[in-house]
Write a structure and sequence with these properties.
With about 400 residues, this protein is an alpha/beta fold. The chain has 2 domains: about 10-50 and about 295-395, Alpha-Beta Complex (Aspartate Aminotransferase, domain 1), CATH 3.90.1150.10; about 50-290, Type I PLP-dependent aspartate aminotransferase-like (Major domain) (Aspartate Aminotransferase, domain 2, 3-Layer(aba) Sandwich). About 40% of the residues lie in helices and about 15% in strands. It has helices at about 15-30, 50-60, 75-85, 100-110, 130-135, 155-160, 185-200, 255-270, 280-290, 295-315, 340-350, 380-395; strands at about 35, 95-100, 120-125, 140-145, 165-175, 200-205, 230-235, 245-255, 320, 330, 335, 355, 355, 370-375. Strands 2-8-7-6-5-3-4 form a 7-stranded mixed beta sheet, sandwiched between helices. Strands 10-14-13 form a 3-stranded antiparallel beta sheet. α5 (about 130-135) links the parallel β3 and β4 (about 140-145).
């Protein structure tokens, strides 16, 4: 029998976050103490979901809500998402699909839109899931670069210069992963104007919308117009601390005459995959309509850890770090002669500190960065940053 050869499409799939974790596993097996600043999973640190959400899922299981659900999701969950969307000001909601995490929503919506020769404008740096899905679709990543000199804001002129006759959509991640940027309303309105001018669909990834520091001025894209088609992605994973529940959703808003065929196409795929986890969907109403106290507490804790992160990193000569306005990531710049991927791998092997190289998220040519997750407690963060300082001093002084 001959060797089984994988399809060519997998050759271009990269997911730096998990690839770094493989190196970390090898180092951990040697007995070295590890400091994980690489995975955006609150549950592996000292965060836990609100009890009323867990109780809602347990009740659903005990009531044997364990079979298939309707493909777009149960009515209770979709109604709760609709209410939340309306509270956020999203207008002209045409459909809502409950998905297996926001990730599945992203994959369904990209797959339902793109032919192999077409492209989507993706932020760089940005969440690598998008480019991985595009690789599977044999579609083209059309990168646009965030402006580091302007707190990682969107560069509208750069974005417009990259639009061509094969561009179908633009992705905006707000708050941004990995930079923690939160975009001003004025910037979002300019994105909408581009979409209107060039007939583009907007994908607005808002999974971190409740994790905002110092009352950052967050605006949901779908609240700003009713004449441009927008798909808003969100879910329970981050703000409600249940990434393992794998529950997200896609909200389709805008003119139905533009969206109807597309929505029908995405729903065909949703029916083919049957449904998101049935009992887990009962956490949605409990989360969105229930007490929100845990979010304030989470933000207080994260603010302390963010400030510690920024201060300690900026105290290292070769590193500079802007202040994240949302989510739980920092994206410091490295002023080093090495490639950031080599830096990250050597850092793991020598110190046990696990970060992710900025090139795994996309970045301007000639720049080097790290993505750091500041979810761990202060003691772990202090030890990790001390180790980074020692590593840098040994390597470059």
């Amino acid at each position: 029998m001959q060797k089984i050869v994988p399809a060519s499409r997998v050759q271009n799939i990269r997911y730096a976050i998990r690839e770094v974790a493989c190196i970390a596993s090898e180092v951990k097996a040697t007995g070295k103490d590890m400091y994980y600043l690489n995975i955006g999973d609150p549950n592996i640190y000292d965060f836990a979901p609100p009890k009323h959400m867990v109780d809602a899922v347990c009740k659903a299981m005990m009531e044997n809500k364990n079979g298939y659900s309707p493909s777009p999701g149960i009515d209770e969950a979709r109604d709760a998402v609709r209410r939340q969307a309306l509270r956020n000001g999203i207008r002209d909601i045409q459909d809502i699909i409950i998905t297996h995490g926001a990730s599945e929503g992203i994959e369904l919506c990209l797959t339902g839109l793109l032919e192999p020769w077409e492209n989507v404008l993706l932020p760089q740096p940005g969440y690598p899931l998008y480019s991985s899905i595009m690789a599977k679709l044999n579609a083209e990543v059309n990168p646009y670069y965030l402006d580091e000199e302007d707190n990682w804001n969107l560069d509208i002129d750069d974005i417009e210069s990259r639009i061509n006759n094969k561009t179908r959509a633009i992705v905006v991640i707000n708050p941004n992963n990995p930079t923690g940027a939160v975009y001003p309303k004025e910037t979002l309105l300019k994105i909408i104007e581009l979409a209107r001018k060039y007939n583009l669909l907007i994908f607005s990834d808002e999974i971190y919308d409740k994790l905002l520091f110092e009352n950052a001025d967050y605006t949901s894209m779908g609240s700003l117009c009713n004449d441009v088609p927008i798909v808003t992605f969100n879910g329970l994973s981050k703000s409600y601390i249940v990434p393992g529940f794998r529950i997200g959703w896609a909200i389709f808003s805008g003119p139905i005459e533009y969206l109807n065929d597309y929505i029908n196409g995405v729903n065909k795929m949703a029916r083919a995959r049957l449904s998101a986890s049935h009992p887990m969907q009962y956490a949605i109403k409990a989360a969105l309509d229930g007490p929100q106290d845990h979010i304030d507490e989470m933000i207080k804790t994260l603010t302390i850890r963010r400030d510690l992160t920024v201060n300690m990193l900026n105290d290292i000569e070769e590193i500079s770090c802007s202040i994240p306005k949302g989510a739980f990531y920092a994206f410091p710049t490295l002023q080093i002669p090495d490639q950031d991927e080599d830096f990250v791998k050597d850092l793991i092997r020598e110190t046990g500190v696990v970060t992710v190289h900025g090139s795994g998220f996309g970045q301007k040519l000639g720049t080097q960065h790290l993505r750091i997750v500041f979810l761990p407690n202060e003691a772990i963060l202090e030890q990790a940053y001390d180790k980074i300082r020692t590593f840098v001093k040994k390597r470059y002084h």
